[in-house]
Amino acid sequence: MYRARIAFALAAAAFVASVTAGALADPVSDFAAAWAKVDDYTVTIKVHETDGKNVQDRVYHYAYKKPHFAKIDVVSGPGRGSGSVWSGGDHVKGHQGGFLSGIKASIALTDPRAVSLRGDTMDQASFQSVADDFANGKIEGASTAATVDGVAADVVTIDLATPANGVTKRVVALSKVTHLPVRRSGYAGDTLVKQEDFSDLSIDPGLKESDFN
To answer: Which domains are present in the chain?
Structure first.
């Protein structure tokens, strides 16, 4: 009887250890834990986006500070030189590129001048948006391993509870090192309509609220 109890205890301990290891290896849990530790970050986002026959390719420099501060500048592509800042709420402060760069205006977050080709707002480019998708969507199947631009990643597919500008599914590649996104792809049904590649990530560079004025 004593040996049986020992064997049972060892088996139970092994089961708990396996469950714990599995939980730690879950990419979504790892992302949540990593994102919880981040206060602010900057990143380069290369975006390829389509809407019917229309195509838009842009590169952005993006800065974000919790809980709701964001700054986006168009580095290349349509609107190069323009940028916006967001401090929560339904308005952004922005400027156009070129000779109009000195003229700043407050416009609606969803104003055509402030959104992407498919109508995505600047807050939707943040990693918080990824966290929201995980929280509100449904994970489709098990994660898979992949290499994205030389970065080892775990790939997770999310069926969105509410389609966002026609996007019904997102596929997110999470770095195995930082556990933060290196690529996010949006699908309308089975058609890829948007791909965002994240690079040059700087975690907690010490951004201040005044950086978003």
So the answer is: 2-212 (2.50.20.10)
